[in-house]
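Input:
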Amino acid sequence: MLWRKMLRDILGNKGSYLACLVLVLIGLVVFTAFSILSDNLRLSKEEFYTGQNFADGFVELTTMPQRHVETLSRIDGISHLSGRLVREVRLYAPQRQESVYLRLVSLDLTDPGRVNDALLLSGAELTGGALNAWIDNKFFEANGLELGQSLQVIAGGRLHELTLTGVGMSPEFTYPLRDLKEFYPNPEQFGIAFVPLEDMSTLFPDTRDRVNDLVFTLEAGADFDRVKELLEPELEQYGLRAIYPREDQLSHVMLTEEINGINSMSKALPLLFLFIAGIILYIMLKRLVEQQRGQIGLLKAFGYTNREVVVHYLSYALVVGSIGGLIGGSLGILLATPMTNLLFVFFNVPPVYTGFSLYYLVTGLLLSVSIFLFAGYHGCKDALKLKPAEAMRPPAPPFSGKSLLERVGFFWGMLTIQGMMAVRNLSRNLGRSVFLFLGIMISCAVVAMTWSFNDMVDKLVFYQFEEVETYDAKLILNLPAERKAVARELEKLPEVMRAEPMLEVPVALSHKWLEEDVLLLGITADSTFYNILDKRSNRIVPEKDGLILSERLAQKLDVQKGDSLDFGSPLFRLAKDQQVKVVEIIPQYLGMNAYMELSAVEGMLRQGKLATSFLLSVRGDTDETVGHNISTLRDRYRESDFVAGVDGREERFRQTRELMETFGSVIYLYVFIGVITGFSIIYSSSFIILSERSRELASMMVLGMTPREVFSVITFEQWFISFFAILAGIPLAQMMQWGFAMEMSTDMYTIPGELTLQSLFVAPLITGLSIWLAQRFVLSKIEKLSLIDVLKTRE
Amino acid sequence: MTNPLIVAKNVEKSYQMGEVIVYALRGVDFTLYEKELVVVLGPSGSGKSTLLNIIGGMDTASAGELFYGELALHEAGSKELTFYRRNEVGFIFQFYNLMPNLTAYENINLSVQIAKNPLQIDELLTQVGLSDRRDHFPAQLSGGEQQRVAIARGLAKNPSMLLCDEPTGSLDLASGIQVLKLLRSFCQNYHKTVVIITHNTSIRHMADRVVYLKDGRVDKVEKNENPISAEKVTW
Ligand SMILES: Nc1ncnc2c1ncn2[C@@H]1O[C@H](COP(=O)(O)OP(=O)(O)OP(=O)(O)O)[C@@H](O)[C@H]1O
Ligand SMILES: [Mg+2]
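Output:
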């Protein structure tokens, strides 16, 4: 019988229970789907890593004889060490506008225990000496290649035909970026080819029996830093460029961060949703118990025990919690696989699916039910205290004295009667008002932060490609070259108007015990193509012998303007004894670099007047003619061994933007969360108000007020709170943004911690809109309010 | 006799309850005149409240015609009914239905705000004898006092009629008489029509006319040539 009463109660108030249910549902969908998703990713990653013997350590060298690999692998702590040749080549594809690059990674076919082995997905084994290759699956798909087809590559100054015998993938390239300035993999223009080691010497005759890259696994319990110390002296003579652990490997970092992000999202989001749902349920049950004191008294008078009464009210919580839990959990499980597939579009890992997970279904269910029982118990425990006789009497009238606001005479005088009612209601239900306030505040903050974040990402790309880099094209050399001669040569070309040299040198900077390997950009003092900008976007002229650091780099090295740094360059075998002063610290959003005046870099390196790349302005009045001239330029050097490539700025700008837009859509998930939160809070709070004050509202309508006028009493109250909540949401958003920026920033990109102006408009607007929308439902409910039914009964 | 205010012709009200149709009114013919005080009597379930609600524009008839002057209430939409209630009707209920978080003054003001030519709030409060309680909340007033505030609120917007559904239902004799006196005096001083539904047959003596309802029909109408004053009513 009581079950039937409960069901009718729920149906009679289905709006609020539905809001609760939807929140639980979303919470659990996110919980199960994201948990499984993160499990899938982690499992896939681990299996891939073990299966392909993923390296614990990575070494980049200039060049080293292959026979030395054997000796190195005997170093204490190293389990297996593979020597490889890694070289980037350009694809010869005259029909294509943009440059296409392949990174050739050698596989030593004689080594059975290869580290970072490629996994063959389809096709045949490699044969040494046949100039064949496995191509990475993303590149393969993106370019519509076929097995058996040949790719023409420019290597060692000559055109070679590389036959594709297979499609493969490697744990080293789960998130392959051509260089650190890119955000996202671009498989159309950058791919990996796995080539037998001996074929490499056909492509690059100067590399016979030599390697330039080492990867190694550690023995169980071995310490990377210890091994690094042992390796370093051995490699010094071979031009050691970098040696780093797996934790710093790009693809690994990206993949691991993604998994961690999803993992923490799988916990934080559902808790947020369940928390809000729990509070709503708490308020509703508290309200229900107050409303039904007469019924409770009656039940008790019949002889129902306290326990039975509480169980009755808890059954509301149980029903909503378990229905939401079951449906949400199942939906989450269903969604997990498509969501995993979506992520595997971005991360190149052979997918492993955990599939149906009873564990998460049960945990999710337990989680939602226990939160609800907790909230429910606190909501209805007042029913316990009631004695039957007391319960059947109406409750003591709520104290309705003057509220604090009334004492502000000026403010009070401005209010209509509806406004006065609203303000008094606020103080009458202080707890509820606080909840409404917090909910709207969070909702607004989430939207503002998300929006801001999105704007920021946009802005930083724009900043980099419009304000900092202003050249038309960048010509990258394979090896440093004498700059005057090359510049003169370039400026003779009909496409080029002006060429500006640039020197990009990997350097090791150290301060106290801190050390960072970064790329030092040597820029001419009067450069018009690369602007070093300070915080206020004023151009800084690099001083003769001062170093300029990006903010993040300065932070990592713990240096202030005016401090001195130790400066070394493994590439140029420069001992780390030079000192250089930091003259400026500037914001940099893409990448993390140090800057110096070009000739000052030369002074430090003592290698003559060199350049590694040239920034060009290209002839042409429109983007189109410039683009055309850039491809002509590219054609010129298509077969050159001297030029590594020509990058068009416009093109990179556009590509980065496009890619960002696809990825940016993920961010709307958060906006959605903000909207749902705001909506459900207003929605359920309105329904509570509606059931609680239906009598008052009906009386007003009897007086001849229109539904809209009656409605305005409720909305005034909500807008009043929301106004302040939204205001408070902005500083909260700012705090969240700072935290988020700190959390998200990497050496590849720095997210500024500010809110954008636009988000300050958009967030209140979106929050307001979701409030407005929720209120529409209430209005229609008021219009349908039956005056007679409400007024017939005694309160 | 004065002009008719409300004319009901064969008004029916029925409710569909699953398979069966329940009739609350089975064809009521009835005219309400200006400036009169009418008492409606009848056994429980005879349709008194239903009729009053329909007259007051809170509910609509299922069949029949109902006119307020030119306005056909049986055809009116919810918007017209709202404005009809707003401008022409004051309601008084057994359970006062005051806004708990508004003071006596503010409760009356609530209805003044939406009225076309409202009466003076303070004057009304004096007339209902509550000028010293103007800033008290309903919880601080007795039942009789609350009912007097409700009457003042009903009257404040200066309606053509005051419809009262068991206004003395939960009051003791003394407070009941006070309320009845007020209703009578408003009928006389402001020339308004007052309809009182009651179970208390002795109240009929103060009415100009008494309408008896039975089984959803008007059983009989009695005219009272010499209504007694409210003080003399006893129960
Ligand atoms: N919403 C409804 N649904 C079904 N029947 C209803 C409804 N409202 C009223 N009725 C029926 O209509 C009839 C008349 O009801 P009404 O409230 O008008 O009686 P009443 O004369 O005011 O009685 P009382 O003196 O007890 O207040 C009753 O038989 C009642 O059962
Ligand atoms: Mg009745």
